[in-house]
Specification:
This protein is of the alpha/beta class. The protein has 17 helices and 17 strands. Strands 7, 8, 9, 10, 11, 12, 13, 14, 15, 16 and 17 form an eleven-stranded mixed sheet that branches. It has a six-stranded parallel sheet with strand order 3-2-1-4-5-6, with helices on both faces.
Length: 449
Amino acid sequence: MKPTNLSPIRVGLLGIGTVGSGTFNVLQRNQEEIRRRAGRGIEITMVADLDVARAKAAVGSGVQVVDDARKVIANPDIDIVVELIGGYGIARQLVLEAIEAGKHVVTANKALLAVHGTEIFAAAHRKGVMVAFEAAVAGGIPIIKALREGLTANSIQWIAGIINGTTNFILSEMRDKGLDFDVALKEAQRLGYAEADPTFDIEGVDAGHKVTLMSAIAFGIPVQFDKAYVEGITQLAAQDIRYAEQLGYRIKLLGITKRAANGIELRVHPSLVPAKRLIANVEGAMNAVVVQGDAVGTTLYYGKGAGSEPTASAVIADLVDIARLHTADPEHRVPYLAFQPDTMTQAMSDLPIVPMSEVVTSYYLRLKVADETGVLAKVTGILASLGISIDAVLQREADDVGGEGSTQTDLIILTHDCVEAKMNEALAQMQALPTVLAPITRIRKEELA
C-alpha cells in the first residue's frame, strides 16, 4: 500500500537573492495547497549564502543558514538542492557535486544548462536523480512542461519566443515614445528592467540560452548553444521601428528554432512580425512563446518572464514534480529533455544545426541613398540578378530624412523568402554602389503563419 503519511521533502537553497527569497515566501504562504498537490510537505530547511545576515533576515529562525554551499550538498537530510547562484563557474561544479551526492537538482540557470546541459543531464541519468529547470526559460510561464509533457503527441514544427523581458521593454519604449536605443536602455536601467551591465540581454545571449533549451526539448537534440546564431538589438534605430509600423509590422527580438529540410534552425535576432499576430502585441517586460505542432496547430504561452514570485512559481512547480516522483523508478520519470534515453547520448537525434547562411527567410532592408534618378533601378537590379524577389518598396521623401532640399532619401525594401547567403551577397553588392551613403540596415522578417 502507498503510504499516506510521507515525511516532508527537505530542500536546500543555494542563494537567497530575488528568486530564492520569492521561493521561500511562496512556499510559506501556499504551503497547505502545495502539500495537498504534492502529496507531502515541501520544506526549505537549509540555505547557503555568502551574506549570512541577509539570508537569516529572509528566512527567519527556523532554517539553518550557512556560508558554504558544499555544507548543504553534504547534508544527508537534504533531498533536493535548488541552485540559484547563476553563471557557468562555481554553479556547474556545485550542481555536479549535488548530483554525485544523490540529490535531485532544481535550477533557474539557463546559461549553465545551455552550455553544460549535456554533461549535467548525463551525470543525473547515471545517478538516477532528477534535474528540473522550468524556471530557466520564460520565468513563470510553464513552457518547459508544455513542450515536454502537454505537447508530447506532436511533431513540433517551430517555436518563436519573446523570451527576454529587458529587450522587449526597450523595443516597446522605442516604439511607443520614438526613443533611440541608448535612451530606452537608460530608462530600462532606471526602472530596474536592465542590469548595470546589460550585455547578455541586449546582445541576445540570454535569449540564445533559453531557445537552446527549448530546441533540445522540442526536437530531441543535444543542447548546443555554441551553434546558435545570436544577434541583439543594439543596432536598431527608432526610424526602423517607425517604418516597420507603417508597413504593418512590429520589431521584436525573437528566439526561433525550426525544423527545416536540412536540420534544425537555432537563432536569435530582431524580426519584423505582422502587427496582427498576437505575439507582436506583447509589450513591456512580458514574455510570450508560440509553438507550432503538427496535431495541435498554433499555441501561445504568455506571462511574466522574470521577477521574484513569477520565477519562484516555476521553481516550486519543479519541487512539486520531484516530490510526486521522488519514490518512482528513475526509468519511469519524465525525461529531462522529453525523449526517453537508452543512454543520454543514444537518445539524442543527430540532426545538425543549420548554419545561418543556409537559413531561408524574408527581409526588411533600409538604404540611405542619394536622391537621384536610377538609384532604385540599380538596387532592384542587384536583387533580381540574385533571384531575390521584392514584396514592397517604400521611399521616404527627402524632408523625412534631411529636411527641404536634402540630397538623401531612405529606401525601404521588403523581400520575399530567400536563402541568407544570397542576401549577404546582395548586401555586399548594394553597399558598394557609390549612391548608397551609409551602412545598409537588414532585419529579418518572420510571418509566423
